[in-house]
Amino acid sequence: MDPRLSPPKTRVRKRRKKAVWKAKRKCPQAAAPDPDLYHCDVCGKDIKYQSNFREHQRIHTGERPYQCKRCEKTFTRCADLIKHRLVHSALRPFRCRICGKRFKLQADLDKHGKVHSDEAPFACHLCPKHFKRTSCLVKHLRIHTQEKPFACSHCSRRFKWEASVKEHERVHTGERPHRCDQCPKTFTHRSTFLQHQRTHQKHPAFSCKHCTKSFNHKSNLLKHVRTLHS
Asked: Which residues pair with 38 in a beta bridge?
């Protein structure tokens, strides 16, 4: 073959390089594991530090080696146990700069900060109401859906809110945690306790707009207005 008719060597090399590059794109090789990272065989996650890798493995094993001595609650991480100990402590190191209210956890202070803001980004799609926190929206939606996720452990009754089922269960247990400091009476429900406290007030809290009568309970005032002024 006439050497004058053969393609230049540089052109042939370029074509070969291009062909190799295309082949690599079609069949990419698996990246070699980084020897400086700890690889989880269960989920494939790579973690930089050995201590974090050990904590991560507990997600798969269910191991909870850190236990609270006060309530026997267990935790996966030591940091979570340290945070939990504040529950049993009177210390409230995180203070709101606006109202001075104090909190045990930074997360609780961050949630509280929304109280002082006009922002309410969580909207109900069934009514015009807006809420500052997702948890408040979730609770509100139960009014529309009539969902009752909290069941009494003693009977078949169900409730929309956790606080309601706790109060109801006292009917079965006989617990009466609300004690009047002016008489020996005790109460199961906080609302009943607050109503009772008004009986010790010198000046009744609810006054009639149509006459001079006053009442300790709002229900008595409403009954009075319906009977005499409607």
From this structure: 47
